[in-house]
Write a structure and sequence with these properties.
Number of helices of chain B: 3
Shape of chain B: globular
Oligomer: heterodimer
Strand order of the largest sheet of chain B: 1-2-3-4-5
Number of helices of chain A: 8
Structural class of chain B: alpha/beta
Distance between the termini of chain A: 9 Å
Radius of gyration of chain B: 12 Å
Number of strands of chain B: 5
Helix content of chain B: 25-40%
Largest sheet of chain B: 5 strands, mixed
Strand content of chain B: 35-45%
Radius of gyration of chain A: 17 Å
Distance between the termini of chain B: 26 Å
Largest sheet of chain A: 5 strands, antiparallel
């Protein structure tokens, strides 16, 4: 476990080409405004992942959880520009979903690109998930210390905390409109 | 994803299937609201064995259910979570907030 994380850190600090070169599959999907509106993106992605790791595989569900959270974050906050603070209060969660539905129905511009690829880390198989949205990003420095224990009692912050626990590494980059998660199959 | 409700004596079960995320929110809320209104029901069990996965919005929905159940004077329990669902529940420390039961 420790060795594995050290290897992962070494790999992450190296050039991204080195991390990408040894994989044997890569899936890239681009979703524009119409697709984001009409397609249930997570179903498309989980069905695709299900072709590589069958639904009975131990890695299927964690990968789906990571993808789902990253996709929803990119869509809700990057593209639809919804503020998580709406979720507070007794009807906050329902208000949020209502606003989300409205924003999605009236969406005319924006896109999400993501790549899911197989990478090797110290002889172990891993999956790298890279997602970029066309939104304005956010100040991710404040997110570094998000813990699920703290987030769980509030009505937001749980998604990112969950990804941080399931993935071996989660890195935000660019102006905050870009996220990379590394999952190691072990 | 889908759900169905079963009632046996004073225990109601909401059986969740497939994916538990915000897409099922309306149906889920309608199901438990109906059970809250049923005076014969004292305990509501969320049956999780048929779930493929749950996400952070599902955690939010369960938190809301728990709060509302207290007001409605009903007990909530989470039953038979699959391995990955259990992982999500454990990560969120839901064992401190809910009774989680597993088949022997």
């Amino acid at each position: 476990m420790v060795n594995n994380q050290e290897a992962l850190s070494r790999q992450l600090s190296g050039s991204s080409d080195a991390a990408n070169s040894s994989g044997n599959w890569r899936i890239a999907i681009h979703l524009g405004a119409d697709e984001l509106k009409c397609l249930d993106a997570i179903t498309v992605v989980s069905k695709t992942i299900g072709k590589i790791y069958t639904t009975a595989d131990v890695h299927f569900s964690p990968l789906c959880v990571i993808l789902n959270e990253l996709l929803n974050n990119a869509l809700d906050h990057g593209i639809l520009r919804l503020d998580s603070s709406i979720k507070q209060g007794s009807d906050g969660f329902e208000d949020y979903l209502h606003q989300r539905e409205h924003a999605l129905q009236t969406l005319t511009a924006g896109s999400i690109d993501f790549e899911i690829e197989n990478v090797m880390t110290d002889g172990r198989c891993g999956v790298k998930i890279h997602i970029v949205d066309s939104g304005n990003g956010f100040d991710y420095s404040a997110l570094q210390n998000t813990s699920l224990e703290k987030a769980v009692l509030g009505q937001h912050g749980r998604g990112i905390a969950l990804v941080k626990r399931m993935a071996h590494k989660l890195i935000f980059s660019g102006k905050g409109n870009e996220a990379t998660a590394y999952y190691v199959c072990e | 994803m889908s759900l169905e409700t079963q009632i046996q004596d004073n225990v109601a079960s909401i059986v969740m299937k497939g994916r538990f995320d915000f897409q099922i929110h309306k149906e889920f809320k309608e199901a438990y609201t109906r059970l809250f209104e049923n005076a014969a029901v004292q305990q509501i069990k969320i049956e999780m064995s048929k779930l493929e996965f749950m996400d952070s919005s599902a955690l939010g929905m369960l938190m809301l259910l728990n709060e509302r159940a207290k007001t409605a004077n009903k007990t909530i329990s989470l039953a038979n979570p699959s391995q990955v669902v259990n992982q999500v529940l454990e990560m969120a420390n839901f064992n401190r907030l809910f009774t989680i039961t597993k088949k022997a």
